[in-house]
Amino acid sequence: MPRINLGSWARNAVDWLQSHLSWLFDAVSTVLTGMYDGVHAVLSAPDALLMAGILAVVAWWLRGLLAAVLAFAGLALIDSFRLWDQATSTLSLILVASVITLVLAVPLGIWAARDQKVSKALRPVLDVMQTMPAFVYLIPGVMFFSIGPMPGLIATIVFSMPPGVRMTELGIRQVDGELVEAARAFGTTPRDTLLRVQLPLALPTIMAGVNQVIMLALSMVVIAGMAGAGGLGEAVYSAVTQVDIGAGVESGLAVVVLAMYLDRMTGALGTRVSPLGRRGAAKAASPARSAAFLRYRPGTAVATVGVVVLALVAGGMHLVRGGDRESVAAGKDVGQGKAVKIGYFPWDEAVASTYLWQNVLEARGYRPEVKQLDPGPLYTALAQGQMDVQFDSWLPTTHKQYWDRYGGKLSDLGSWYGPTSLELTVPSYMKDVNSLEDLKGKSGEFGGKIVGIEASAGMMGKLNGNVLKDYGLDGEYKVVSSSTSTMLAELDRAMKKKEPIVTTLWSPHWAYGTYDLKKLKDPKGAWGKGEELHAIGKKDFAKDFPRIAEWVKGFKMSEKDLASLEAEIQKGGKGHEKDSARRWLDARPGLLDKLAPVTS
Question: Is residue 512 within 8 Å of 266, Cβ to Cβ?
Answer without folding.
Answer: no
